[in-house]
Amino acid sequence: MMQSDAFIARFMALHPKKIDLSLERIERLLAQLGHPERRVPPVVHVAGTNGKGSTVAFMRAALEAAGYGVHAYTSPHLVHFHERIRLGGHLVGEEALVDAFETCERVNDGAPITFFEITTAAAFKLFADHPADVLLLEVGLGGRMDTTNVIDRPLVTVIASISQDHADFLGTDLAGIAREKAGILKRGVPGVLYPQVDEVRAEIERVAARVGAPLVIGGQDFDVHEENGRLVYQDEDGLLDLPLPRLAGRHQHRNAGLAIAALRSQHRLVLEDRHFERAMQAVEWPARLQRLNQGAIPALLPPGSEIWLDGGHNVDGGRVLAEALAELEERTARPLVLVTGMLSTKDSDGFLQNFAGLAREVHAVPIEHSPAARTPEEVAAAARHAGLAARPHASLEAALRAIADEAFPVAPRVVITGSLYLAGEVLGFNGTAPK
């Protein structure tokens, strides 16, 4: 066990709730630490329901192509906590992480604080102590009361796709959810907006008008589409003719467009067309329609199987995944088999309904290290309710072996999905943890 794991275990016990939306505790600790959040590099702050991490990945690839030193903060991690914090393009090392954790634990002195709050304080300390040109800062949950919303003057704020998720904290009213996400908007700071449904866009526009934040709106001020196998981006500054991004799925075209618009809306960091072109070819973001070609899992499945991993876990995430799989089916027809594990806090029925008529069968699996996981029997029942054939299994390996024993007319397309926590277990099992 890494030394940082011991700190993480202790941090989990500092507050009775895993999530308790408030800025009071983080502001107290940051003040005690000497306000590291005021000494971080210029910030691009990113909120949204789906696509935040992918948008950050596109921006990071473009900025690094331009030679900038880039810090990044994302969550959750898949295999190791270190994935959440990138310092100048590299995952934080164990020694630096332990040092930051140790300082935060000592300064906090046992005061009530959530896990995300104290670890975000540690991240701000690391970002302040290590020079870079920019910090890409992803919201944890919501926006207005999120722990990351202590940055007074970011370079730009970005709001990715908004839909329902975390209903127990943000509710189910789309306008209310949009209002919380729009809480990261700041006076005089450009707010760049993914193309949203009318209800969401109208609410964000109301918040922006109230705080005095100029908006750059997808589908209005910028647009992106595929044309002749290329990605075409256009805004008032001109047109970019780019390669299609490495990240699979048409929704990633829109995330790429959002990233480009965000970087073109600020004027401190200078990027050229060639940097965006390089970004489309270099971008990586694990467990978002990630192809698994090597490792333990391909060795267990029938030769020639096409294996994908996607951390989609809410209704809208299921929708965009199903759209991407339908496109793959149009290009190359294969039997589609889902391996699915989900949390009890997610709408399993709504997620799985997206795959009715598309998937041949669902193999339901547990998420081993999450007490909030649905049982395989519950996931299988939800799949059947959605009109899908389904079987529960005691483990991921048992599901994979069951698929290997089936008779398929051609090698199947196997998609493992339903939870980022499951995705982390899959990458660990496969031996392909993010680097």
Automatic annotation (TrEMBL):
Domain Mur ligase C-terminal: 307-419
MF annotations from Gene Ontology: dihydrofolate synthase activity; tetrahydrofolylpolyglutamate synthase activity
EC number assigned by the record: 6.3.2.12, 6.3.2.17
Any one Pfam family match given in the protein's UniProt record, by short name: Mur_ligase_M
Protein's pathway: Cofactor biosynthesis; tetrahydrofolate biosynthesis; 7,8-dihydrofolate from 2-amino-4-hydroxy-6-hydroxymethyl-7,8-dihydropteridine diphosphate and 4-aminobenzoate: step 2/2; Cofactor biosynthesis; tetrahydrofolylpolyglutamate biosynthesis
Leading EC class: ligase
Reaction equation(s) it catalyzes: 7,8-dihydropteroate + L-glutamate + ATP = 7,8-dihydrofolate + ADP + phosphate + H(+); (6R)-5,10-methylenetetrahydrofolyl-(gamma-L-Glu)(n) + L-glutamate + ATP = (6R)-5,10-methylenetetrahydrofolyl-(gamma-L-Glu)(n+1) + ADP + phosphate + H(+); (6S)-5,6,7,8-tetrahydrofolyl-(gamma-L-Glu)(n) + L-glutamate + ATP = (6S)-5,6,7,8-tetrahydrofolyl-(gamma-L-Glu)(n+1) + ADP + phosphate + H(+); 10-formyltetrahydrofolyl-(gamma-L-Glu)(n) + L-glutamate + ATP = 10-formyltetrahydrofolyl-(gamma-L-Glu)(n+1) + ADP + phosphate + H(+)
Annotated keywords: ATP-binding, Folate biosynthesis, Ligase, Magnesium, Metal-binding, Nucleotide-binding
Occurrences of domain Mur ligase central (ranges): 46-262
Superkingdom in the source lineage: Bacteria
PANTHER family with a match to the protein in the record: DIHYDROFOLATE SYNTHETASE-RELATED, FOLYLPOLYGLUTAMATE SYNTHASE-RELATED
Protein role: Functions in two distinct reactions of the de novo folate biosynthetic pathway. Catalyzes the addition of a glutamate residue to dihydropteroate (7,8-dihydropteroate or H2Pte) to form dihydrofolate (7,8-dihydrofolate monoglutamate or H2Pte-Glu). Also catalyzes successive additions of L-glutamate to tetrahydrofolate or 10-formyltetrahydrofolate or 5,10-methylenetetrahydrofolate, leading to folylpolyglutamate derivatives.
Family, per entry: Belongs to the folylpolyglutamate synthase family.
Identification of the protein by name: Dihydrofolate synthase/folylpolyglutamate synthase
Native source organism of the sequence: Labrys monachus
Lineage: Bacteria, Pseudomonadati, Pseudomonadota, Alphaproteobacteria, Hyphomicrobiales
